[in-house]
């Protein structure tokens, strides 16, 4: 077996033959002649700064794929693109199995190019083009080959599906780093997140935050900290998705944006005011606060994706049936949060309150060594998911559910912090007094 850069095994090219290669799922091929690939061109799906994507059909099986090809002309460009290429392979493999994330079928490396075979090959192009078509059909009364009601439903569902998909990506410790409509495909009127070449695996030591120059060209949807080349992390993805939500909201509610090519970070205050003033249908009104909470200037105050998805899934029609089913399976899941630390002069130390998902106080916590937690609850709980999301200064959310088990801790490899997950049953008993609850701010 040959080796790809990074040590991955490749299936060697069997040499000249009149037969097409048979490409198998999960394999990586090292080719001498790309003409032996069994793919016939169907359509161009898009171009990027380092690659192009086309829809192809396998002559052996009839299966359709999105073929992403990186071309290089010299050894230096080959090395740079191999790093980019291998990063995308590794991260896409980590995200296998989610219905709103593109799936890797196979890869190949040749003398002058590298390729990824991806599924699905979108039948509706990118969200950017889908939105453009929707505006055209809505504003100009142009006849559509797709019923407008179908497109409206797809765009409404995109809110929850994108929030759930990106939350899944973050739960794996991955920062996408280039969320934009052009990197979201529409397949059978459902969103698919793609293009992980710029993404970063934060589970690798020292990669949970970055700063400095932006190493990709998309700035319209980038967070203020990205523009400022300062410390940035998962919250930058939340901001970018919030910008995508602005464009979904604008199309569905017919809110005209004046600065169609401006960077959102430069016009966000103006955009928030435009959203606030918009006269829209009642069913869309909750989106105003969601969008504004995702696109705040201060990254520590942005709402977490788990919270966003919870809000979407509680509304009718704002996520697909599969996402809704996943939510119903964990229907007892609730959210705990923690307020800002407050200085209490009489005690000479800091205090924060523990809130349930309705912002009711269900306990409090004293800072110190050791830290002391007093809960107004008697039910114990256990954690079904180790992930949690940050939603404001010193405010953290954790997924919990009721059980008869003991109180348990969960560690998040995303934020490297610990939460003691507690129930939200009101009671006068302080049976949890003295328990350690570690929640530190960044």
Report on the structure:
- Strand 1 and strand 2 (9-12) form a beta hairpin.
- The radius of gyration is 24 Å and the shape is globular.
- It has 442 residues and is α+β, with helices and mostly antiparallel strands.
- Residues 1-8, 331-335 and 377-442 have low confidence and may be disordered.
- The protein has 3 domains: 2-119, Phosphorylase Kinase, domain 1 (2-Layer Sandwich); 127-329, Orthogonal Bundle (Transferase(Phosphotransferase), domain 1), CATH 1.10.510; 334-420, no CATH class.
- An 8-stranded mixed β-sheet has the order 1-2-3-7-8-6-5-4, covered by helices on one side.
- The chain has 9 helices and 22 strands.
Distance between the termini: 46 Å
Radius of gyration: 24 Å
The helix tally amounts to 9
Into which percentage range does the β-strand content fall?
15-25%
Return the average pLDDT rounded to an integer.
Answer: 78
Question: Looking across the biggest beta sheet, what order are the strands in?
Answer: 1-2-3-7-8-6-5-4
Largest sheet: 8 strands, mixed
Enumerate the spans where pLDDT stays under 50 for 5 or more consecutive residues.
Answer: 1-8, 331-335, 377-442
| Overall SS class | alpha+beta
Which geometry do the CA atoms define? globular
Structure summary:
The chain is α+β, with helices and mostly antiparallel strands and 442 residues long. Helix content is 28%, strand content 24%. The chain has 3 domains: 2-119, 2-Layer Sandwich (Phosphorylase Kinase, domain 1), CATH 3.30.200; 127-329, Orthogonal Bundle (Transferase(Phosphotransferase), domain 1); 334-420, no CATH class.
């Amino acid at each position: 077996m040959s080796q790809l850069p990074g040590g991955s095994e490749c299936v060697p090219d069997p040499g000249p033959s009149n037969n097409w290669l048979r490409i198998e799922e999960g394999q990586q091929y090292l080719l001498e002649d790309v003409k032996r690939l069994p793919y016939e061109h169907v359509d161009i799906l898009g171009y990027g700064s380092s690659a192009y994507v086309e829809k192809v059909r396998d002559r052996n099986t009839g299966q359709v794929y999105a073929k992403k090809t990186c071309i290089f002309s010299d050894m230096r460009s080959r090395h740079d693109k191999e790093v980019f290429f291998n990063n995308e392979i590794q991260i896409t493999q980590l995200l296998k199995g989610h219905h709103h994330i593109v799936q890797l079928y196979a890869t190949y490396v040749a003398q002058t190019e590298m390729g990824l075979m991806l599924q699905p090959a979108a039948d509706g192009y990118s969200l950017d083009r889908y939105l453009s078509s929707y505006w055209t059909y809505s504003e100009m009364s142009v006849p559509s080959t797709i019923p407008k009601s179908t497109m409206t439903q797809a765009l409404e569902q995109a809110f929850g599906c994108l929030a759930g998909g990106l939350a899944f990506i973050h739960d794996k410790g991955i920062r996408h780093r280039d969320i934009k409509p052009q990197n979201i495909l529409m397949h059978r009127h459902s969103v698919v997140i793609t293009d992980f070449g710029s993404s970063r695996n934060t589970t690798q030591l020292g990669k949970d935050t970055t700063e400095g120059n932006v190493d990709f060209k998309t700035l319209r949807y980038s967070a203020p900290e990205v523009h400022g080349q300062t410390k940035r992390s998962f919250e930058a993805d939340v901001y970018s998705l919030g910008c995508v939500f602005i464009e979904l909201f604008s199309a569905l509610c017919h809110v005209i944006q004046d600065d169609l090519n401006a960077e959102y970070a430069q016009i966000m205050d103006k955009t928030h005011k435009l959203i606030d003033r918009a006269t829209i249908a009642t069913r869309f009104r909750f989106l105003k606060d969601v969008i504004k909470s995702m696109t705040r200037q201060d990254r520590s105050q942005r709402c977490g994706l788990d919270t966003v998805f919870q809000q979407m899934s509680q509304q009718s029609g704002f996520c697909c049936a599969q996402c809704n089913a996943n939510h119903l399976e964990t229907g007892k899941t609730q959210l705990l949060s923690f307020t800002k630390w407050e200085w209490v002069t009489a005690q000479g130390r800091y205090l924060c309150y523990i809130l349930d998902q309705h912002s009711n106080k269900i306990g409090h916590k004293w800072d110190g060594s050791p830290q002391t937690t007093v809960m107004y609850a008697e039910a114990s709980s256990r954690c079904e998911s180790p992930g949690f999301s940050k939603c404001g200064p010193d405010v953290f959310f954790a997924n919990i559910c009721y059980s008869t088990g003991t109180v348990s801790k969960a560690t998040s490899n995303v934020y490297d912090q610990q939460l003691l997950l507690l129930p939200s049953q009101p009671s006068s008993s302080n049976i949890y007094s003295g328990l350690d609850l570690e929640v530190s701010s960044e």
